[in-house]
Design a protein that fits this description.
The complex is a heterodimer of chains A (882) and B (118). Chain A is built from 24 helices and 30 strands. Chain A is of the alpha+beta class and 882 residues long. Chain A has six domains: 86 residues; 152 residues, GAF domain (Beta-Lactamase, 2-Layer Sandwich); 192 residues, GAF domain (Beta-Lactamase, 2-Layer Sandwich), CATH 3.30.450; 102 residues, 2-Layer Sandwich (Beta-Lactamase), CATH 3.30.450.20; 75 residues, Orthogonal Bundle (Helix Hairpins); 145 residues, Heat Shock Protein 90 (2-Layer Sandwich), CATH 3.30.565.10. In chain A, the strands form six sheets. Chain A has a six-stranded antiparallel beta sheet. In chain A, strands 9-8-7-12-11-10 form a six-stranded antiparallel beta sheet. The radius of gyration of chain A is 76 Å and the shape is rod-shaped. In chain A, 28% of the residues are buried. With 118 residues, chain B is of the alpha/beta class. Chain B has one domain: Response regulator (Rossmann fold). Chain B is built from four helices and five strands, in the order βαβαβαββα. In chain B, helix 2 runs parallel beside helix 3. Chain B starts with a strand and ends with a helix. Classes of the chains: A alpha+beta (882), B alpha/beta (118). Chains A and B meet through helix 18 and helix 19 of A and helix 1 of B.
């Protein structure tokens, strides 16, 4: 008995009258036996001849089988293989009729069974689709259902990915059976199936031989159905080999019905996946919307907080700007940072920057200190805050109450932070960055924050610089160490603005302070200048000299108190007037001299200048000085100083007169001495004569003496007359000048050696220098000059004498290395009665000059007087002319 | 009565004093310079009193008085001069008396008398 399997086009052995196991499962293939097939379909008994290979078991006895077709209502169900043709066809037909009905029923029943399975599968599948929202899970669960429903060995989902099929999910395949996890698109049935809408059903292992294989077990039948989602190819669901041991079925392979079912289910899967996709998208959209909503809410909160804090910031800035005290400004800043009506930080510490040492020095730290009842102190702070109408007022007035020291600030002790080279603080101070520190930061960079944490003792805080336009003034560290509220982005945003605003305010305060200091200094300088000006004016007005200053236009710009007194003109009337209008007061010459100063550009002095002021004779030393403008290098005016020397002048005259009198007195004394001796002698002998009238010899002797003395007296008197009148006739006689000099030197030899003076002697050998002279007069001159030199040189000094002649005159020169005769005295040396204490009576040189020049027609003069030596020289001409 | 040495560079003055004092009963020796006076005193120690002019060439009367005072402290010295201003000079204090010359020699005679009484 053979059953027909239309899908494979074979007759398969079902049972036999022969007890032969060998022929079980024997197949007659119809595909290459067109005649046989046609005959059978035409309900004809046909003959099937065994091939040599098929002659095994009970078939060895047979050459051929007579095939008798079994039809039921027009469908070929199978054939009956008979060993011979000798049977009654009619009878057999009759007998098989009921069998065919039965066979058909059985097949139908099994089909229904399978259909039931499939319906169950659909039910299960529906459940899966309903309950699964994940793509991969859905595919997997679907594959599980397929596997059960189709009673298949293995099932694989080949996923289309980058021009390949990848084994994405598999059921019923061991890892060791897999050759390859992917398949090419062009050389595989799986790949081919992607292009076919209705799927592919392949039965018989022969059909798989020419394709790429993914595993090593033999494929007998397989179904392929492509999976699409919304028209997009996702891959192929492939089901391999129907399990043989399962149930009854005339064939052990998938059939068209299976394939249809698979296609249908895969399409459902596609729709389900599409649904999932849609659902996922929807879910995403919803979650996006929800996120959007949340972020909007967040944004609104953020904005609200931002706005609140901005408002607070504005108020804090306003409050800081209202003070000009730095200390106070810092307090307002810290209060603003910590206040509930401000930026609400728990604590705020300000460290001031010490630029020179590179330190940040704790200035003030506001916030609850350790062990303080925080709730109570905040409640108290809020209670105080409520009292104020507005925040600005609150900050300003509360800041004033904040002490410079508190427990929190004291807890820092003397610690400072060095920011130069500090990995964090250098950035804050110099790069003006804000640093937000959270515990995670510290895990990574603990060392860098060690010194900061040592001071603030918390692991979350925010450091920001207080920066002006130019530089960082200090840094602030804020934290929420009590409430543990994290520092938000809003906080950081606000701090960014806060930092600038506060920094600028602090800088402004500092600038203001500096300005105030400078103003103060300027004021002090102004006061000092005022003082100096007054001082100068006081000096000017209290000077004992009259000072008049005129500018280039001849306008009086200074007229001091003494000038007021001297010229009886008040300063108020004179200032600004033209000096020319007062020529009758100060004199025409003075006015003219002013003009000269602009030309000469030097000082000019009129000593002992006589002026008539309101009928009174006055003598002034008048000094003209240019008034220089040092910066421009021009003369702006002229300073005229009137020194009233009237008194001094008369005193000087008096002194000169007295000196002259003293000189006359000395001369008189000498005259008296000269006279007294002869007078004594004359008087004495005259007395004796009266006593010795009786002694004629004595009288004679006495008379002779008296006569001699009277003669002498006469000579003396005439000499005095000559001395005073100078008209004595000079007695000229030829004399040797060298000899005369030698005589005088001999007189002073002792004096010279006593003073250890070096005197040259070469003049002694000058030979005879004869000239007509009055010996005694020239001797007097020589004595004068030589004695002066000896007196004037120091001990161990040097005197050089030269005597000589030329064709016109004989000369004498005496040089000494004594002190210089000052220039102003040089001209006056030969003036009668001119004297200084150094130069004796004042008659010596004038008499000498008179002797040489008047009486000998020669010249006597000072040749020179400088640091090296002083030389006097006289010359006496050989030929005296009138 | 005293033995007196007169020193003066002017012959007539010396002569006048010599004669006047001799008349007063004194024994008079006279020289014309200070140096000669010192020479004389070396030889002749009998002199009680020296009467000297001040202004003389070489050694003057004041110096002479000083020398005599050093060498012969017991001898009296009278400075006889035409000038009164030497009286203020310390050197003149070496002398026992200072007499200004005048034609009347009474003052000189009285001074000698007074000195010799001591």
């Amino acid at each position: 008995m053979f059953v027909y399997e239309p899908s494979r086009d074979i007759f398969k052995h079902m049972g036999s009258s022969e007890n032969c196991k060998k022929i079980k499962g024997f197949k007659i293939y119809l595909s290459d036996k067109e005649n046989l097939k046609n005959e059978l379909y035409e309900n004809k008994i046909s003959e099937y001849y065994f091939t040599e290979e098929e002659k095994f078991g009970c078939f060895e006895k047979f050459e051929k089988l007579c095939l008798y077709p079994i039809f039921y209502s027009g469908s070929l169900l199978g054939v009956l293989g008979l060993s011979d043709i000798d049977f009654d066809r009619i009878n057999l037909d009759e007998k098989l009729k009921s069998f065919a009905v039965l066979l058909n029923l059985v097949i139908e029943k099994l089909s229904i069974e399978e259909l039931k399975d499939k319906i169950n599968m659909i039910k299960e599948f529906t459940k899966i689709i309903e309950s699964t929202l994940d793509e991969d899970t859905l595919i997997y669960k679907t594959m599980e259902t397929f596997k059960n429903s189709f009673h298949s060995r293995s099932i694989i989902f080949w996923k289309l990915q980058s021009e390949k099929l990848i084994m994405s999910q598999s059921i019923g395949i061991n890892e060791d059976e897999i050759i390859c996890h992917f398949l090419p698109l062009d050389n595989s049935i799986e790949g081919n199936s992607l292009t076919i809408d209705d799927g592919i059903l392949e039965i018989g292992s022969k059909n798989f031989e020419n394709y790429a294989k993914a595993f090593n077990f033999k494929i007998k039948s397989a179904m392929f159905s492509r999976l699409q989602i919304d028209g997009v190819l996702l891959g192929v669901i492939a089901i391999y080999n129907r399990k043989e041991e399962f149930g009854y079925r005339p064939y052990k392979h998938f059939d068209k019905f299976d394939l249809n079912f698979l296609n249908d289910s895969v399409k459902r899967l596609g729709i389900a996946l599409s649904r999932i996709n849609l659902y996922t998208r929807l879910k995403n959209e919803i979650s996006k919307l929800r996120n959007l909503k949340e972020s909007h809410e967040e944004l609104i909160n953020f904005q609200k907080e931002h706005l609140e804090k901005m408002n607070a910031l504005h108020k804090i800035s306003q409050a800081i700007r209202s003070t000009y005290d730095k200390n106070n400004a810092v307090k307002i800043m810290l209060l603003g940072l910590t206040a509930g009506r401000g930026l609400k930080f728990n604590r705020a510490l300000y460290l001031e920057r010490d630029r020179v040492r590179g330190f940040l020095i704790p200035f003030l730290w506001l916030g609850p200190s350790e062990g303080e009842d925080v709730t109570e102190s905040w409640r108290e702070a809020n209670r105080r805050a409520i009292k104020y109408g507005n925040i600005v007022q609150y900050l300003r007035e509360e800041a004033l109450q904040i002490p410079n020291h508190n427990k929190l600030t004291e807890s820092i002790g003397n610690k400072v932070l060095a920011y130069k080279g500090h990995p964090i603080l250098d950035r804050v101070v110099n790069k003006k960055q804000i640093v937000n520190v959270v515990p995670q930061t510290l895990k990574v960079k603990k060392e860098e924050f060690e010194d900061i944490i040592d001071i603030i003792k918390t692991d979350s805080f925010l450091i920001f610089p207080v920066t002006g336009k130019f530089e960082t003034k200090g840094i602030v560290i804020v934290d929420n160490s009590i409430t543990k509220t994290p520092i938000s982005n809003v906080d950081i945003e606000i701090i960014r603005l806060f930092q600038d605003s506060v920094g600028l305010s602090l800088e402004m305060i500092e600038n203001y302070e500096e300005l105030r200091q400078k103003t103060k200094i300027l004021e002090e300088q102004k006061n000092l200048m005022d003082y100096y000006r007054r001082f100068k004016e006081n000096i000017l007005h209290n000077l004992a000299v009259a000072i008049i200053v005129v500018d280039r236009k001849g306008k009086i710009i200074e007229w001091n108190q003494k000038a007021e007194v001297l010229f009886s003109r008040p300063r108020e009337n004179m200032m600004g007037s033209k000096i020319n209008f007062f020529s009758e007061i100060v004199g025409e010459d003075i006015i003219n001299t002013i003009e000269e100063i602009y030309v000469s550009k030097t000082d000019l002095k009129y000593p002992d200048y006589k002026v008539n002021i309101s009928g009174e004779k006055k003598i002034f030393d008048i000094q003209f000085s240019p008034l220089w403008n040092r910066e421009l290098g021009v003369i702006e005016g002229v300073i005229i100083v009137f020194d009233d020397v009237t008194e001094l002048y008369s005193l000087q005259r008096e002194m000169e007169r007295r000196e002259r009198l003293a000189a006359i007195g000395e001369m008189t004394a000498r005259i008296a001495h000269e006279i007294r001796n002869p007078l004594t002698v004359i008087g004495g002998f005259l007395k004796r004569m009266t006593k010795k009238l009786d002694e004629p010899d004595s009288i004679k002797k006495y008379s002779k003496i008296i006569d001699d003395e009277l003669n002498r007296l006469e000579v003396i008197v005439s000499e005095i007359l000559e001395y005073s009148r100078g008209n004595k006739i000079t007695q000229l006689e030829e004399s040797n000048l060298v000899e005369l000099v030698r005589d005088v030197i001999i007189m002073y030899e002792d004096f010279i050696s006593q003073k250890n003076i070096f005197l040259n002697t070469d003049w002694v050998d000058s030979g005879e220098i004869t000239v007509d002279i009055d010996r005694s007069k020239i001797k007097q001159v020589l004595i004068n000059l030589i004695k002066n030199s000896i007196e004037i040189v120091e001990n161990g000094g040097k005197i050089d004498i030269k005597i000589g002649k030329n064709e016109k005159f004989a000369f004498f020169e005496i040089e000494n290395n004594g002190p210089v005769i000052e220039e102003e005295y040089q001209n006056k040396l030969f003036m009668p009665f001119f004297t200084t204490k150094t130069y004796g009576t004042g008659l010596g040189l004038p008499i000498c000059k008179k002797i040489i020049e008047d009486e000998h027609k020669g010249r006597l003069f000072l040749l020179k007087s400088d640091d090296i030596s002083t030389i006097f020289r006289f010359e006496i001409p050989f030929e005296k002319q009138n | 009565m005293a033995k007196i040495l007169v020193v003066d560079d002017e012959d007539n003055v010396r002569l006048l004093i010599e004669e006047e004092l001799t008349d007063s009963g004194h024994i008079i020796e006279s020289v014309e310079s200070a140096q000669k006076a010192l020479d004389f005193l070396k030889k002749e120690n009998e002199i009680d009193l020296i009467c000297t002019d001040i202004e003389m060439p070489d050694m003057n009367g004041l110096e002479l008085a000083g020398e005599i005072r050093k060498k012969y402290p017991e001898k009296k010295i009278i400075l006889l001069t035409a000038y009164s201003h030497y009286k203020s000079e310390m050197a003149s204090w070496a002398a026992d008396a200072y007499v200004v010359k005048s034609m009347d020699l009474t003052e000189l005679k009285d001074t000698i008398q007074n000195l010799m009484k001591l």
